[in-house]
Write a structure and sequence with these properties.
single chain; alpha/beta; about 15% strand; disordered N terminus; binds S-adenosylmethionine; nucleus; S-adenosyl-L-methionine binding; rRNA processing
Length: about 350
């Protein structure tokens, strides 16, 4: 595991050595110190929320930081473990309805870091005994809209709540973000399926049959509408003035409104503008509408400073970056053909 680099992200490492929270987050730390994180208005979130924050993302675009500003999430130090569910790329099994008691009694934590810098996260020094992946879900945040698995922190927390049957908590948390409830809309059908499962195996089974189904539908569309399929014209999830589709099914929403609504201070930043410019550059899409090549200098519109040029398979997983590489998803690798043997995610990116 690579060491945290100097500069960004070093705050939290110093904390680990001193054993004290750094001064820049002490106040919010204190603010969130009541039972389940009472915020500055004295309101508390009913369940404990926590995060390890590696300061790798633009604070204006970072959902974890926003939750911290709201006083509903507590920052954890490197070296501190968490008793509740830890929704993390380091998980080995998926969140399931049977996790509900742990969620309600001990809470949920996430790892606030950049997707491109996961190898800098000292996973062995964080986490806990209940680390979990999330099953297939599609991001609705303005940075990674339409990308499967790549949720931001608030979406990951909300997904966990929804899967264990606490849609009320998911809704409450997401309602702090102008785009937030879109996440529940976009994933409504799938979340209901997961909610009806029991253990992690049953969630995996449900996920696999969903993935097989969408793959089959994509093949049928290709067979029946060669050259005349909206799906084949590009990633409609990520273009303006098209209906938003989830796995080829229109949700009726329009991406224009999603990109333009509210939260200017969070998202109308240089980063997002760069991200949008990237759409105008040369891009290609696979049969499921995911971006599979990017022009040499295009930016990735991810939170944080993710600068890799990535290639996605038909399910939205990274299969190539600048140099030829393989991506390990959980315990298995995804080939450049997009075969996915196991649909857990990105424990390691081997570049
Ligand atoms: C990589 S960070 C990026 C956060 C982003 N900067 C933001 O604004 O929230 C997202 C975190 O959410 C959780 N997460 C998101 N998608 C996940 C998934 N599919 N499985 C497990 N954890 C996931 C993990 O804790 C992960 O580290």
């Amino acid at each position: 595991m690579a060491k945290l680099s100097k500069g960004k992200g070093t705050n939290k490492q110093r904390d680990a050595h001193s054993g004290r929270p750094s001064s820049n987050h002490t106040s919010s730390h204190r603010r969130a110190e009541s039972k389940h994180g009472a915020n500055k208005n004295g309101k508390s979130f009913p369940v404990k929320l926590a995060m390890w924050d590696f300061d790798q993302c633009d604070p204006k675009r970072c959902s974890g930081k926003k939750l911290e500003r709201l006083g509903v999430i507590k920052s954890l130090r490197v070296g501190q473990k968490f008793q509740g569910i830890v929704v993390s790329p380091n998980g080995k099994t998926v969140v399931c309805p049977n996790d509900r008691n742990i969620v309600e009694e001990s809470g949920v934590a996430v790892v606030e870091c950049s997707w491109a810098r996961l190898d800098e996260v000292p996973f062995s020094k964080i986490g806990g005994r209940n680390e979990r992946l999330l099953p297939y879900l599609v991001a609705a945040n303005q940075v990674n809209y339409g990308r499967p698995w790549r949720l931001n922190c608030v979406e990951a927390l909300a997904a966990c709540f929804a899967i264990v049957g606490r849609l009320d908590l998911a809704t409450e948390l997401l309602s702090h973000f102008s785009w937030g409830l879109q996440f529940l809309e976009l994933n409504k059908e799938l979340l209901e399926i997961y909610q009806h499962c029991t253990d992690a195996d049953s969630v995996k089974e449900a996920e696999n049959s969903w993935l097989e189904q969408i793959e089959k539908e994509a093949q049928e569309r290709r067979a029946h509408n060669p050259g005349d399929d909206l799906w084949l014209t590009g990633n409609v999830n990520r273009k303006r003035n098209h209906n938003v589709t989830q796995n080829g099914v229109s949700t009726g929403a329009d991406t224009e409104s999603i990109w333009e609504q509210g939260e200017a201070s969070e998202y109308e930043t240089e980063g997002i503008e760069n991200g949008e410019k990237a759409f105008q550059k040369s891009v290609e899409y696979d049969s499921l509408g995911n971006e599979i090549t990017l022009s040499e200098n295009s930016h990735l519109e991810d939170s944080g400073n993710d600068e890799l040029s990535e290639v996605y398979d038909s399910l939205g997983n990274i299969v190539l970056s600048n140099e030829e590489c393989a991506v390990t998803i959980g315990t298995s690798k995804i080939s450049t053909e997009g075969d996915v043997a196991d649909h857990s995610i990105y424990a390691n990116i081997e570049v």
